[in-house]
Amino acid sequence: MLLLLIIMSMAVFSISSIMILVSSVYDTSKRANVDIFDYFSIIQESSDQSGTWSTENEGIITCYDVNVTTTPITTVLGTTNSYIIATADMDDLINDLNINIVEGKKPSEGKQQILVNNSVASNKSLDIGDQLGDFTVSGFFDGDVQVSLCHMGDFSTLYGEQPLSMLVVPEQGNSIKRVNELCDELGEDVELITRKTQLKNLDDEFETINLIMDIIVILVSISLAIAVSAFVYTSYANRNEEFAIYYALGYGICDIIRLILEETIYMSVFAYIVGNGVSILIMKCVETLVYAPIGQVMNVMSAQNMCFTLVIPFLVILFSGVPVIRRLRKTDLLMLIERR
């Protein structure tokens, strides 16, 4: 019985761990490319129309002319990007985004310096004075605004004059939802970068990957469940004499069947809890020792993981409990007792 529990728990653990590792890539990309738009939105290549629009909505939004580019960050299973924002109003933007500098100082204009989020710095193993592209790191800030900030003059010196975008921040008392509602008024001719558009782009990028991984996980789950079920079935098949003794003691066939189902369900539930529990514990250690040092996130508990791992106990009950019951109904338990 103990061996059965261990094998079933290992099967649940395997599926849970695979799902957590795969979803961590999506979570890291989402944090760097989607979650930052909880704090601002961007209007690509701002025009006279957007300039008039910003004037009309003074008191609700604050707008900054910016240049936007990206820098790659490494994930355990691939790469994604983090934004670099060049602005001529560094102090005001830092205040509006509630950026808290925890080490170093703000970039000095004319020195080609850059202020980096702690998560990006951890991912790239940066210290103050190191190079991030063509910029020198001047300081680090904490929080969820996973971007880097530099002066627009330095950006133009390095890369030439680029078309300006407009970064839109809600003023105090207003929400980013209200900002995005106002952005939608600009019409389809204006290219917007908001949480909604970025989330759609990310989901589109991961759609094929997620489909392939879901198919792989389902196939692995079914294969493991069948293998475990075969082992459970064999274990029960070797207990015919035990069932015959129960029958001789007055247990009916229905009573024995109920006993088998209860055992199978209890084992499956126990293995489900233990397997997921061990997976969460180990993945927490992986998050602390591997992911956190490189500025990545890992969601060790999610409804998706719990649902996928339910496949194991469900199929074990289906592929072992049902065949054992059918076999028991066809077995002459009295004959087994007489042979003893």
Quick summary of this structure?
The chain has 340 residues and is of the alpha+beta class. The chain folds into two domains: 160 residues, no CATH class; 146 residues, no CATH class.
Folded structure, characterized:
There is one protein chain. By secondary structure, the protein is α+β, with helices and mostly antiparallel strands. It has 2 domains: 2-27 and 206-339, no CATH class; 45-190, no CATH class. Helix content is 58%, strand content 18%. The chain has helices at 2-33, 48-56, 90-96, 118-124, 152-159, 176-184, 195-237, 240-248, 253-291, 303-309, 311-329, 333-339; strands at residues 41-43, 61-75, 78-87, 100-104, 113-117, 131-132, 135-142, 147-151, 165-170, 192-193. Helix 9 runs antiparallel to helix 11. The longest helix has 43 residues, at 195-237.
Q: Give the C-alpha Rg.
A: 29 Å
Main sheet overview? 10 strands, mixed
Instruction: Assign the structural class, choosing from mainly alpha, mainly beta, alpha/beta, alpha+beta, or little secondary structure.
Output: alpha+beta
- Supply the number of structural domains: 2
Helix residue percentage: 55-70%
Mean pLDDT: 82
First and last CA, distance: 24 Å
Strand residue percentage:
15-25%
H/E element order: HEHEEHEEHEEEHEHEHHHHHH
Give the tally of β-strands: 10
Q: If helices are DSSP runs of H or I spanning 4 or more residues, what is the number of helices?
A: 12
Runs in which pLDDT lies below 50 for 5 or more consecutive residues are none
**General shape:** elongated
